[in-house]
Amino acid sequence: xxxxxxxxxxxxxxxxxxxxxxxxxxxxxxxxxxxxxxxxxxxxxxxxxxxxxxxxxxxxxxxxxxxxxxxxxxxxxxxxxxxxxxxxxxxxxxxxxxxxxxxxxxxxxxxxxxxxxxxxxxxxxxxxxxxxxxxxxxxxxxxxxxxxxxxxxxxxxxxxxxxxxxxxxxxxxxxxxxxxxxxxxxxxxxxxxxxxxxxxxxxxxxxxxxxxxxxxxxxxxxxxxxxxxxxxxxxxxxxxxxxxxxxxxxxxxxxxxxxxxxxxxxxxxxxxxxxxxxxxxxxxxxxxxxxxxxxxxxxxxxxxxxxxxxxxxxxxxxxxxxxxxxxxxxxxxxxxxxxxxxxxxxxxxxxxxxxxxxxxxxxxxxxxxxxxxxxxxxxxxxxxxxxxxxxxxxxxxxxxxxxxxxxxxxxxxx
Length: 414
What we know:
Elements: H1 2-17, E1 34-41, E2 47-55, E3 62-70, E4 78-79, E5 86-91, E6 97-102, E7 105-106, E8 109-110, E9 114-119, E10 126-127, E11 136-140, E12 146-151, H2 155-177, H3 190-211, E13 227-228, E14 232-233, E15 241-246, E16 258-259, E17 267-272, E18 278-283, E19 296-302, E20 309-314, E21 319-323, E22 329-334, E23 347-352, E24 360-362, H4 367-370, E25 378-381, E26 390-393, H5 397-406
Antiparallel strand pairs: 1-2, 2-3, 3-4, 5-6, 6-9, 7-8, 9-10, 11-12, 12-15, 13-14, 15-16, 17-18, 18-19, 19-20, 21-22, 22-23, 23-24, 25-26
């Protein structure tokens, strides 16, 4: 009996130390996933800022925040921002500020994102745009004094916003004038005064919101492509245009955005010339381009505004544009359009920033390709199977050749 008991105890102990049995992944595991994206290396190369993505508490959407980690390794990532919808980190050219987009929530739903800045020397972040349709895709000028971005805000939106602000000011004055006199201002503590002011402001804002013009939710669909995943309904009346704004250095510095481009067509893929005198962008002046083969039009406009100049028309849908260090060539990722396939792998291309220049494909692992590139050489490896494409410019051609040799060969159909 004792032998049986001893054996039973040993059996239980063995079960206790057995590793947990592996199981297959399920759909509920998605709630515990953590993703990272949009990595941005600081100008001195010592840190990388990135976006951390998690599933929110209600398990109905995602929260995004900005973190950073030293490139030397050996340290855990550090959280930089506390917002629930922070994205698009962009380092200032001197590395002293981190620009990003922040979307706050109203009635449980995210508002359009606005631009914010975080001083890297210390202090809280602050937002400095307030456009009705938000601000996205910010890009620093080379001198760090100006920021270019895109927004779908139009003149009608600005007029409504200004009208609403005036209404709020009128209501605040009316609330203050009709408040009970039983509690004189002199007898109130600073905390009570602040609370009363905030209450009056909130009441005025709510009343102005209720009295503002009602926007109908009826949509008249006139185009074949009228909505996109994660974007919602498209609004042809509000194309994305390019704006600029002076980069503030603190929350007390008030700045006003300036619209640079106009018209009925979207603009995007914004980047600055090396001297900061011009802004390049991609557009396509076709009302319904999905009826045609992909095509992109490359434009340039003065940083101070004016008429845009068309530089080139490329028979591909350009993406992930990057200007060479000498400012004379443009690298981009695109897929060929002929022959027509259900899917074509994207490749790396390069084109001179001269009018009507022809793009040249840069195939991985081709040392001959390096001869097509100027002395400020670059290399980019398209990483397939859904992973992120990495881009870096290499000033040393021999380093570029070594990088080509070390990269595994992939054919177009791999």
